[in-house]
Amino acid sequence: MTTMAQTKLEPAEATQDLCLQASAAARRAAQRAGIVVRPLRTLAELDEGSRLISDIWDDGDPKAPTSLLRALVHAGNFVAGAFEDDRLVGVSLAFFGLEDDEYYLHSHITGIDRARQGRSLGYALKQFQRSWALERGARTIVWTADPLVRGNAYFNLVKLGASMVAYHENFYGFLEDGLNAGDSDRVVLRWELASERAVRAADGVLEEPNTRDGRVVLRAGSDGEPLVDDAGGKVLLAWIPRDIVRIREVNPELAAAWRGAVRDTVGRALADKFRVEAITRDGWLVLRR
Fold first, then answer.
1. What is the number of other CB atoms lying within 10 angstroms of the CB of residue 31?
2. Nearest Cα to 147, choosing from 156, 137, 138?
């Protein structure tokens, strides 16, 4: 009997042209960001990666200890870093999963040195991850994200061409790191690496979604409070605040209200066979059946 550990992913499923396109897109992204992206292999590099993750997440206990990174690399999984002048400034780790006979890559952590955020380093890391996965026969990358972080939603949906496909309440339990203190509702992002959306996004084509036929299910009131509307239709619109991290700091009760409102609207719609493939620049998630 062949076990998951014994099965080797083959690149035959991914066409040569697709692999070449992904590799070229990854190189362009790294060059534009002024970095070099490559796998981390030595213990010294993995140790540096572990420290960087702790610094980014302001986590006293290592979120990804060196021993774990070493085990992931040894088992053939994805641990990569972004280097600027030989200094590690970004890190990403992922491992293979299996669901309904499909092998996919689960992207667990991708982080950028706080002093270098906003320079497309994360985009370069993810494009390298896409190329790496395709070369190993994986056609899909999956990860979780907080749906209330608008910038991440725009990055995932528009810049990468991924889709929100599911919602999990309190997915990781109570979190205590500096970025995610509190509950951990998460959406599942599915990145179909060979899809037209992913290919166009890798080539830098950004598309503004059409919201004309959308029915508003979540919006902000006059005092910034969430207002939920029981609208129906094939296209739904849910507004996401600009900076939920700041709201958590200054008004935890308001942040909790937004968490509940997103759970009741976006979460319910995703459970009802909607999915999210777009968000406008001003924060409107577009959900379609």
1. 11
2. 156
Please tell me what DSSP assigns to residue 175. Answer: B
Q: What is the pLDDT of residue 1?
A: 41
pLDDT attached to residue 2: 41
Which pLDDT value is given to residue 176?
Answer: 55
Instruction: Return d(Cα 60, Cα 53) in angstroms, integer.
Output: 11
Which residue type, as a one-letter code, is found at position 157?
A: L
CA 193 to CA 271: how far, in whole Å?
23
CA 7, CA 225: separation in Å to the nearest integer?
A: 51
pLDDT less than 70: residues of the chain = 1-14, 60, 174-183
Which of 271, 105, 113 has its CA nearest to residue 191?
105
Closest among 248, 243, 57, 263 to 154, alpha carbons compared: 243
Cβ neighbour number for residue 14 with a 10 Å cutoff: 21
What totals of helices (H) and strands (E) does the chain contain, helices first? 9, 12
Q: pTM score > 0.85 for this model? A: yes
